[in-house]
Amino acid sequence: MAASPPFKLDDYKKRMDGAVTALQHEFSGLRTGRASPSLLDPITVDAYGAVSPLTSVASVSVPEPRMISVNVWDKSVVAAVDKAIRSANLGLNPIMDGQTLRIPIPPLTGERRQELAKVAAKYAEQQRIAVRNIRRDAMEHLKKLEKEHAISEDEHKRHGAEVQKTTDDHIKKIDDTLHSKEQEIMQV
């Protein structure tokens, strides 16, 4: 049996940073009342027998503050793009105009703001879980190294404390990101 690789906290830190970055990317797709091309980033389209990101079948632009324009390159995919946008649960209703979909961004109602805040909280919880899973992986790695006598019990405890501190820092970053996004959503 091969020995486990040495413990590197940076590897786990990078994975946790990835979870925070993923959250920020998901939040960029949450609508706050202004049109933004990143609003449609999370949308995938069932086209050509495969699921692809919206940006691989169309170009997205913002001609005015409350309007998104989606120019679909292939006429046969327009209906699939329309369906994907409507079913993305963003509260958007595209207007078809040939190969172009115009999407008016309605002002957010209080109820819609509450729903978006819940979606934001759900995204944040998914990334908290991801960070905790990374912590679990790190702790299992440490346990395995101690069992193989590659590190001492004291080193295991010290590294374990470092992993926990890193985890706590990343959970706090996620909570802070969520808090600022909730404030942005609730701002009228």
UniProtKB/TrEMBL annotation:
Cytoplasm in keyword set: yes
Pfam family, one: RRF
Main location: cytoplasm
GO cellular component term of the entry, any: cytosol
Family of this protein: Belongs to the RRF family.
Native organism: Candidatus Viadribacter manganicus
Task of the protein: Responsible for the release of ribosomes from messenger RNA at the termination of protein biosynthesis. May increase the efficiency of translation by recycling ribosomes from one round of translation to another.
Keyword field: Cytoplasm, Protein biosynthesis
Region annotation (Disordered) ranges: 148-168
GO biological process: cytoplasmic translational termination
Keyword Protein biosynthesis: yes
Gene symbol of the encoding locus: frr
Subcellular location: Cytoplasm
Official protein name in the record: Ribosome-recycling factor
Highest taxon listed in the record's lineage: Bacteria
UniProt-recorded Gene Ontology molecular function terms: ribosomal large subunit binding
Domain named Ribosome recycling factor: residues: 23-186
